[in-house]
Amino acid sequence: MSATASRPARPETAGAGRFARPLLGAFLVAAAVDLAGLLAGLDTVHLVAKPLLMPLLAAYAAVRGGPPLLIAALLFGWGGDVFLLADNDLAFLLGMGSFAVGHVCYLTLFGRGQDRTRASLAAGIAYAVVLAVFLVLIWSDLPAELRVPVAGYSLLLTAMAWRAGVLGRYAAAGGALFLLSDALIATGIAEWPRLPAPDFWVMLTYIAAQLLLALGVLRAGRVNHT
Question: H or E stretch including 21?
Answer without folding.
Answer: helix 20-40
